[in-house]
Amino acid sequence: MEIQRRQTKTKQAVQQVFDAAQGPLSLSELVAAVHEMGLKSDRSTVYRELMRLKADGLLSETSLHGATHYERVAAGEHHHHAICENCESVIELDIEDIIASMEASLAKLGFATKKHIVDFIGHCSSCKTV
Asked: Which of 10, 28, 42, 70 is most buried (CB neighbours < 10 A)?
C-alpha cells in the first residue's frame, strides 16, 4: 500500500540521496548529502523525513557502535549484513534460504515469527588482525 504524503524539497532530496547511495547512510551523512544538493534543511527536518520513510517500510535500519545507519529497501525486501566494526564497511548478504529454513524450523515448534534481525559484526578483510 502506497502512502501519499506531501512532496517537500527535503523529502525529494532525501529520496534522491537514498536512490543514489551505494550502501547504508547515517543521519549525519544524509544531512551532509542534502546540504550538498543546495538545501538548507536542518537536522531535525531530515530526521523526520527519515523516520517517515522508515515507518512506511522503505528503509531498513542497522546499528553499529551506537550509530544507526539506514538504507533503501523495496517493498517486502529485507537485507542482512556483515558489518566491520573497525571501518564500518557493510557487505550485503544473500541468506534468504537460510532464514526461510530457520523460520520453518521455528514454525514446526509452534513459534510464529513476526520479524527477524540478522547482522554479523566483525572485521572485514582489510581490518582483520591475523
From this structure: 70
